[in-house]
Amino acid sequence: MSKGFFSKIKMAGVQCNYRTSGLIILFFISLFSSSACVSHLKKAKFHYAQGQEHSRRYHTEKSISSQGYMLKGMAELNLEFWKEAEESFRNAHSYGFEEGEEWAQQLSLLGLASSMEALGIEDSSFRIYGYLLDKSKLKPVTIVAAQKYTDAMLRKALHLDGKERKKQLSSVLKEVQKLSDKDLSCGFYHYLQSQVYSHLADYRKSFEGALMGKELGLPTEEILRDNDLQIIFCYQNLKEELSSEEWEEFRARYSEWIKKWKWKGPETPDWKKER
Amino acid sequence: MGSAFILYSRISFLSKVFPLKTYLYFPLLNATLFWAIRKAQEWKEEIFSWKVWLDPDRIETKPDEFVLNFFENHTGLNRIYESEIRERDWAALREAFARLYPILGLGDPFLSALFHEEIESENYRKIVSGFEERVNQAEKDIETLEGQSGLLKGLKTFADQMLSLNLDLISQDKVQTVLAGLIKKHFEEKDE
């Protein structure tokens, strides 16, 4: 009985051992196979994430490069380093800044116009400045083109008489007015208008233009000073031109302005040596 | 006292880098001080750009009335150019205007220091006749010197030191007069 019993137990133990071993083997197989799966998955995930990171970094670097070149170009533009700015915009374009190519082309045109002007090929340079005035979205380029265009037109006007002269001046005035209509806050365009009105001997309007230019700000110290001298020139002419009543009214307003600007007198700006 | 000391140290410095070009000391220091006072970021470019103030094209396009007004309203010019004004000699007036307007009108800091003696003695015709030669010479001398590394650093030190004296409270013409006086005194003392 006991033998039988023991042998039963043994048999049962053996059976149990077989089952356990099978389970253990199965467990390890499943463990190994699942760990192998996890490892592959992990690797795939890791490589995918790395790929994503590279791609992100590539795009970021590309965009940083394009932004960097664009900003560099803008700084060079403001310093009037035209050639350098052109190159920077071309580089910005090669890194994906879409407008870069167009901006570089405009600078190339500006350089070409300037070279042609220096060689005395005025008509072509004049046409380019006119084109840039219309098309350029770069303010420093538009400003230079406006300046060159206006100077050339005024120079032509100086050699004309009567109706022809007036026609020429009206035409340049229209161009400059178009610019300040587009960008009313640009002091330089008002300065140019003031200069044209001065040629037309309309000193009230010339004064208004110079006043707007001064209040809105002008690009350089010498232009600011030239504009101040234009204000004084208008003041002196209006003194002769206006009726006594109009003059008194104008003088009172003028006094307010020069007080605001801290001028030493009606004909002496703050920067000017008193004579 | 402070400004004199700073100035003497700068002149000594310029004498080392620029021994034979004493005529440029005043224009260089005056222009440096002018741009430093205005705290222009691009002061180096301003000093070394050598653009005579206001584009010559713009000066050329000023109307006759403006040119005439410039001569008539300046006491010295009115007297010296009396016959040209009376005869409306536009060629002569415009030629003189192109050279004198940047200096007497706009107060170009470099040019007004370069022609300081002529301005003081009201020898305006000398400015007009010698303008190109003098300006071209200055430009050439500066260009040959521009490469020397110490010059900009020295000018910057001068600007910083003078600014520490709150010179921005003083007007440009006063600064210029003080500067001219100190430089003159320095050379006189050296001669003795």
Give structural notes.
The complex is a heterodimer of chains A (275) and B (192). Chain A has a domain at 69-142. Chain A has 10 helices and no strands. Helices cover 84% and strands 0% of the residues of chain A. With 275 residues, chain A is an all-alpha fold. In chain A, helix 3 runs antiparallel to helix 4. In chain B, helix 2 packs across helix 12. Chain B contains 13 helices and no strands. The mean pLDDT of chain B is 76. Chain A binds chain B through residues 79, 147-148, 151-152, 154-155, 158, 195, 198-199, 201, 221-223, 225-226, 229-230, 233, 236-237, 267, 270-275, and chain B through 38, 40, 42, 45, 53-55, 57-58, 60-61, 63, 65-66, 69, 73-75, 102, 105-108, 171-173.
What's the gist of this structure?
Chain A has 275 residues and is mostly helical. Chain A has helices at 2-78, 82-94, 100-118, 122-135, 139-158, 162-182, 187-199, 203-216, 221-241, 244-261.
Oligomer: heterodimer
What Rg of chain B do the Cα atoms give? 18 Å
Rg from alpha-carbon coordinates of chain A: 40 Å
Question: Describe the biggest sheet of chain B?
Answer: none
- The low-confidence runs of chain A, each spanning 5 or more residues with pLDDT under 50, are 1-16, 26-38
Sequence stretches where pLDDT stays below 50 over 5 or more residues of chain B: none
What number of domains of chain B?
2
**Helical coverage of chain A, percent range:** over 70%
According to DSSP, the number of beta strands of chain A is 0
**How much of the residues of chain B is beta strand, in percent?**
under 5%
